[in-house]
Amino acid sequence: MNDPIYSNSEFASEPESAVRMNPGSSLLVALGIGLVAGAIIHFLRPAPTPQQRLARLVEDIEDRLRDAAKPALNKASDLAMDGAEALSGRLHRGEAQVEKLLRGATRRLRQLVP
Asked: Most buried one in 18, 40, 82, 85, CB count within 10 A?
């Protein structure tokens, strides 16, 4: 291994053996690298503008209001469907009554006309 040019298998086996010999240290190093990378990304990202923060706030309020109003909207929808069904039933009964009235009137008119 004193040879300055390593083969691919020798180069790949060195980190693997180091990780196997010191798993705790390897885990801490990986965690540190992840934290540093996250911090760099966080600081390089531009800060949101006031308009973006306001838009995000309004979207959050809208979502919360939608979630809070959902049960009331469902109940109103159910009541509207019940009302529509009741009205439909009354219309059908009304149509039947009008039809009965017209049949009776037609019968009376036929009796009057020779």
From this structure: 18
* C-alpha count within 13 angstroms, C-beta hemisphere, residue 43: 6
Three-state DSSP class for residue 73: helix
Burial zone of 19 (CB within 10 Å; 0-12 exposed, 13-18 middle, 19+ buried): middle
Q: How does pLDDT run across 47-99, given as a tens digit for each residue?
A: 889 999 999 999 999 999 999 999 988 888 888 888 888 777 777 777 777 88
Which domain-ending residue is among 27, 45, 63?
Answer: 45
- Amino acid identity, residue 35? L
DSSP 6: -
Residue type present at position 15: P
